[in-house]
Amino acid sequence: MNEPQLSSIHIDNDEEVPYLSQTSSFEQQRIQVCLEFQDVHFGVRQSKGLFNRKSINKEILKGVSGIVKPGQLLAIMGASGAGKTTLLNVLAGRMSSSGNYFASGSVRLNGEKREFSVFKKISAYVMQDDNMFAELTVEEQVTLSCLLRLPSSMSIEKKKQRVQEIIQEMGLSHVKNTMIGSETKRGVSGGERKRVSIATELVTNPSLLFLDEPTSGLDAFNARNVMQALLKLAQSGRTVITTIHQPRSDIFNMFDMLMLLSEGKVMYFGPAKDAVSYFTRIGYSCPEHYNPADFFLDTISRDGRSAEAEQESEKKIEYLWQCFEEQGKQFSLEPSEKELEKNDVQVYMKPSKSELNREKFANSYMFEFMLLAKRAFKLETREKASNIARIAQTLFFAVFLGLIWLNKGRNISYHDYDAIAGILFFLLINQSFISAFGTVFVLPLERTIVLRERASGMYRVSAYYLSKTLVELPRNALLCIVYILLLYWMVGLHATARDFFLSYVIVYLTILTAEGLASAVASSAPNPQVASAITPAFIVVSLLFGGFFLSSGQIPNYFIWLKYLSFFYYSYGSLLQVQFEDWRFYNGASCPADGVCTGSAVLQKLGPSLPLGGNIGLLITLLISFRVLTYGILRLRGPRFDQTL
Ligand SMILES: Nc1ncnc2c1ncn2[C@@H]1O[C@H](COP(=O)(O)OP(=O)(O)OP(=O)(O)O)[C@@H](O)[C@H]1O
């Protein structure tokens, strides 16, 4: 068993202090973090139109400052569009580095500019959408996160113990063996799903927790449970920052600190319990027995119902902002050295050299690969509906096509060779579409989950994609053999063991290539709708240049290159060769005038093709190229965050 080792950060007297526990006593090992942000401005540049190169700047955050200390729960509240999520993303260092925006100000951690290599390890971010696989149980989800994110130096037993601790801490013990589920699949309740999301992020025992609207979409009871869990996390010494839209009064009372944002400006920042008296002082009294959260939102929101109301509310927002600038800041902002000491916060935090050099991922490639392969296998075997649909489709088409071309291959006459060519091409089309569409609808959804996991640094994208690809191979192989067996027998194709085997391999490779093409398209599309709209175009072009509809001589010179990019061209060419190579037509019938009465004459007539080995080789080349392209796109479209603030 590996002995746990403590990684460390430096404090100013150069002592090393533990910051991420690798023992089971996580609570003792976590450092406390004070997050301070000063004068944060953030805006986006929006282009005026497709043909207009000028852009306009839209300022979203206009000088936001605040401080959150260990043990505190800060709620960022405001109307829709006030800038809550933007602020949370800036504070969490989650601004996409590809965005066209401008940002200024400072975000400091325990008084120092944050070092992102450390920040990533001591913080966690829970997104608004619970992007998790519906078919995993609660325990499986948390366990996978734990095994992948905690370092290899920590024993598996200790990691598993940590899983149980977190499940307990999040109040999920009673549902740990229940499937997570989704909107369309019954699983745990919405509130429990949100707590699973939080538990997934808690495995590294983060000191700092960011949450985007953790109660959105939940009923009052579940929202309260989630907030109670957050309060507990804060009370155990963590620094918790959450955006929230319209909390009930009992939830409002759980906040330690409150930030009210309106149009990117701070209307109030300070202890939540002092907010009502502050607003009374500046002329806005909250009616008795009224939910303060509702009152604040009504007061600080822009009223767009009429031009006058809008003008009025704009004036009010300006006034509230001026008031806060002049008098409200007494609540904030500078943490005194004394206060930091009182809170037992390390004042100066820098990563040691060894820390900076440490591996980006917690575990070895092989370990990641094995765990992800196990998950991919579970997901595949548990997706019952799609598996049944796939099996039914395969059986249906094999029998349906078999009945259409029944016995056509037996005692074939030279009139019938085009019928055989037809079925060979059609079976390729049929299998390609089925496999491509299976991918198109699944991959974009899966990608959002993978993006979240990668943003948390759980694993390498290559380990994910390779494991998924390999796990999916046997299912396709099985379905393909059933399909080919039935068709072969019903149509009466060339029945030597070699030809059967080669035909099977060619169709199987075609399925994998079509799936590869669909993966490349789907991984670049933003959602399944876009992916399903684009993918057929690629497949149809491949079809057109596949050799059945257009012979080489009919293709205009300027499109000839498309033939070489068409995977059908190689698979159809090789299937024809396998079937017609030494076929003799119709016993005893005399050869027609055009001399097409042998398999090789048919091949000649259908146009020149590469040798069988060349066709199969190029099909495999396309298959690998599409897969590598998918990997490249997944990698490029991975989460990259700006680290300037
Ligand atoms: N990348 C962007 N490009 C253009 N506008 C943006 C961008 N990001 C945010 N905005 C705009 O900035 C404003 C603040 O957005 P943000 O998502 O932070 O608001 P919010 O307070 O979290 O709203 P909600 O409660 O509805 O989620 C909105 O008007 C939004 O449309």
Automatic annotation (TrEMBL):
It is a multi-pass membrane protein. The keyword Signal does not apply. The chain crosses the membrane at residues 388-407, 419-443, 476-493, 500-521, 533-551, 558-580, 616-634. Keywords: ATP-binding, Membrane, Nucleotide-binding, Transmembrane, Transmembrane helix, Transport. The keyword Transport applies. GO terms for cellular component: plasma membrane. GO terms for molecular function: ABC-type transporter activity; ATP binding; ATP hydrolysis activity. PROSITE patterns: ABC_TRANSPORTER_1, ABC_TRANSPORTER_2. InterPro entries: AAA+_ATPase (IPR003593), ABC2_TM (IPR013525), ABC_transporter-like_ATP-bd (IPR003439), ABC_transporter-like_CS (IPR017871), ABCG_dom (IPR043926), ABCG_transporters (IPR050352), P-loop_NTPase (IPR027417). This is Probable ATP-dependent transporter ycf16. It comes from Galdieria sulphuraria (Red alga).
